[in-house]
Specification:
Layout (H helix, E strand, L loop, with lengths): L10 E10 L2 E11 L3 E6 L6 H8 L7 E5 L7 E4 L11 H9 L12 H7 L15 H13 L5 E5 L7 H14 L4 E5 L3 H7 L2 E6 L2 E7 H8 L4 E6 L4 E4 L4 H10 L4 E7 L3 H9 L4
InterPro entries: AAA+_ATPase, ABC_transporter-like_ATP-bd, P-loop_NTPase
Protein name: ABC transporter ATP-binding protein
Keywords: ATP-binding, Nucleotide-binding, Transport
């Protein structure tokens, strides 16, 4: 008989519950994280996202259940939504300080040069952080995690309050890092999550609403894409995928009357509100 070996996950959460008085922040959450890739953590305000992150990092005691980190807590990296550094420190000094906080996974650790290059701050290594923009500070916070050699990087609202340029830079960075390690990021910007995450954990009122592949979540909670063709005189042709050929043939026969052709695809936002049974 052939034996099947299953690799340990990077992180395994089993039956975890957290209460604050009468308020149940997490209610028997099960979650397994493997790698590499990008995992989106989504939910409304108060759903339990930050409580779960703090519990995984050992900052929040759990009332029930177990959190197992086979790679060790040293294998976890973390960047909060608003990383803050002493304004007189240079970027390189911040990274040196991060490395000095405790044992570093030397086999996986990034050098300061590599980390600064990865976050596009290589030209700013000797600048004091007091002059950094919000987006630069966010990327420096990620670099500070990278120099410790994490296998699992957790980012809490990494694009919150960033301008469009800073947001685009951080999202591009998450995409690149997801090819080398596992990145878990929480966000209220579901378009960002849909664009980056291959897996999801959806929390609602402290409970797990879904855990698995993003494609499976979309397929299970949205309708099929719809084709809508508008013609002059108010005539509209609408069709689901099976009828697209006939609809396009009909439109081609009246090409002189075409006003608009639009393909509507359900989004992660649509799937999310369907899954939790609420409206945006």
């Amino acid at each position: 008989m052939r034996r099947r070996f299953v690799a340990d996950p990077l992180l395994e959460v089993t039956g975890v519950s957290v209460r604050f008085g009468d308020f149940v922040a997490l209610d028997h959450i099960d979650w397994r994280v493997d790698g590499p890739g990008v995992v989106g953590l989504i939910g409304l305000n108060g759903a339990g996202k930050t409580t779960l992150i703090r519990s995984v990092l050992g900052l929040q005691p759990v009332g029930a259940g177990e959190i197992r980190v086979p790679i060790g807590l040293g294998g976890l990296g973390y960047c909060p939504d608003t990383p803050g550094f002493e304004p007189w420190l240079t970027a390189r000094e911040v990274l040196a300080q991060s490395r000095a906080l405790g044992p570093v996974r030397h086999g996986d650790a990034w050098s300061a040069d590599a980390a600064l290059t990865a976050v596009d701050l290589e030209r700013h290594g000797h600048r004091r952080t007091g002059g950094f923009s919000r987006g630069m500070l966010q990327r420096l916070g990620i670099a500070a995690a990278l120099v410790r050699g994490p296998r699992l990087l957790i980012l809490d609202e990494p694009t919150s309050a960033l301008d469009p340029e800073g947001r685009a830079a951080v999202l591009a960075l998450i995409r690149r890092l997801g090819t080398r390690m596992t990145v878990v990021f929480s966000s209220h910007l579901l378009a960002d999550v849909e664009d980056l995450a291959d897996r999801l954990l959806v929390l609602h009122r402290g409970q797990r609403a879904f855990a698995g592949a993003t494609a499976d979540f979309l397929a299970g909670h949205t309708a099929a894409p719809a084709l809508r063709i508008a013609l002059t005189g108010g005539r509209v042709i609408e069709a689901e995928p099976a009828g697209w050929g006939a609809a396009l043939s009909d439109a081609a026969a009246h090409s002189g009357e075409l006003e608009d052709i639009r393909l509507t695809r359900p989004t992660l936002t649509d799937a999310f509100f369907t899954a939790i049974g609420e409206r945006p």
